């Protein structure tokens, strides 16, 4: 023990010098207890297993070309106690559950996957009645066996709500995290509040206080109350995500975005529930003038390196003469975030929040549950990877 | 020995048991935005127990050295819902000699580690003070005790050293990263070389140039070659073969790529980051040829998967993944590769690898650090470029293989490879 203390003191001396500061927040005392509709802690392991076995059978029995399945159930119940020297004491219960149903189909060396997932903190009833989803996953894998890979090129792309959510999280959300900016003068110049990032129709929000989503908490992991934070309003950059440290350093308000995956990790700036707000265009109107385009659906994941992003759709459909046409596979979209945001020229009139599982990774902390959402979104001039005809 | 105690406790009920105790000590020095950010020392204990009870597998882990009864009880309990066991724990066998412990690592002082970081940062700053630099230096030691109920038992001691560097250069809205890192089990890492490589990729990117979409020759640097090896690693995984999700099923003994291409899994290279005498299931390690002159030689197996596939474990427990993945060198120099390219793409790093359907060998990635080659010379960096293709098709279409291999972060040892033709989409 003595050796450890000596090491910690030595480390503090070597790092030393600069003063760390925190934005002031009023102290609170609060106790949050959740009531799940059907508490998964009361459900015996054997029942959880048999429910998943049922979905596994649905997938395996769906078609002779289904080669294997992957059905994952995971629940966690965290009780978080937070206290700081300024008098805040919070007890918070955080249940999280997710189911992922995945099917692999095969035809010779052609191997394709279909998947569906649900998640949330509501309780075990989320796992009920997923037979249709299991079938959808299996059928998608079968359909993709005969779907051609998308032809690479530049397209007008319509994103479905799930992809919109992933896009705005990956491409823009991470740029809004102030720890990438606060000690980086060049990034500060790019992310100046008041700068135009998109056309007037674009509104981007991060909101940890929205009920029932995976990134929802009353307080963040520094005891700051979560709230609705506009990042882009009417196309203009108006806000960013902060911890108490980055807020103090940049002279801005804390936003309630300091989060840690567990007590062993320090809270760092993270998103909560990030979405593009709904607009006015119906899906039909959005595609009706597209001669040749791509409708990209469902998400496999994404990666971002500040300005550049890439993300993969589960599958896609070509849009031909204003109509949704044939199914295509291997849909990967890429671009420069600033150009792409400016190229968004239609936003759908119906917003959806994804109930999917999964999570975000940053600084070795993964997976952190986050909420994703948005309506259908149309963007011009998106580079789609793939081989050329 | 604690591992033996755990086994004895488990065997009161179980038909087989395995236990391991890892004690990990590490010191981590990290620099952010050009300055020293933190120094962390940590000590962790990781205890894991695996049992076979009524032909089912149970397992449990703990970090609490006072929870020995608890971890055994939970492992036995979880066996009730565990997957069926197809294997028996292996009997006593001594692992091969491989150097995994460097006595120079433990005495490394924090000041020395700080100096390494400082020196790398100042080298980058000397090239261009505008670049913001992150750096990390880590040293560690792992002591492991392993035992099972079939008589296998040993202790090992391994060291680890890790040096990494990452720079960001922002010009207007043009943001560029370059980085390099290496993990080894000895102190033999030249941090100046890591800085030099990081700077090299910045230098070549001083100018952005444009590229036309089309099919063209593509040279993968050792780091860039991960694009092609990912599909291979997944396809050669015995579990994917067993579950028939690998495109390589029924291809054992068949020629699937160019005969100049060979790769091996080698956990017996002295001081390499994934080298060990035994795998996680107590199996002595061995060298496994994977593809030899274009022909598939072996898949990688752990105990359970091997039993299900009616073959023997290759010492790739748990999960059937490779250790050090080694690609054989060819006879063309890197300089010659570039010089012989009239118009093409040099790929050093990509975004989005592993998304989509990687096990099929398909890739469709954004070229993050990619350079246009024009008349045998590197003309500048290209942006907004997508590269797509299939690993197996690409490796059938090799132009030449480099004559010098390089470690990529510490788990892949490979030369650069030039592919005749791949599809490139540019904005
Ligand atoms: Zn993320």
Q: Estimate percent helicity of chain A.
A: 10-25%
Radius of gyration of chain A: 23 Å
Helix content of chain B: 10-25%
Number of strands of chain B: 19
Describe the oligomeric state of these chains in a short phrase.
heterodimer
Q: Counting H and I runs of at least 4 residues, what is the number of helices of chain B? A: 9
Mean pLDDT of chain B: 95
Please trace the helix and strand order of chain B, writing H or E for each element. HEEEHHEEEHEHHEEEHEHEEEEHEEEE
Q: Please describe the biggest sheet of chain B, giving its number of strands, its sense, and whether it closes into a barrel.
A: 6 strands, antiparallel
The low-pLDDT segments of chain B are none
Work out the radius of gyration of chain B: 24 Å
Briefly characterize the structure.
With 389 residues, chain A is an alpha+beta fold. Chain A has helices at residues 2-15, 45-60, 131-146, 161-173, 185-190, 244-250, 283-288, 337-342, and strands at residues 29-32, 66-83, 89-107, 110-120, 153-159, 204-207, 228-233, 236-237, 258-259, 268-269, 273-276, 292-305, 308-320, 323-328, 332-336, 344-347, 352-353, 360-362, 365-368, 371-374, 377-384.
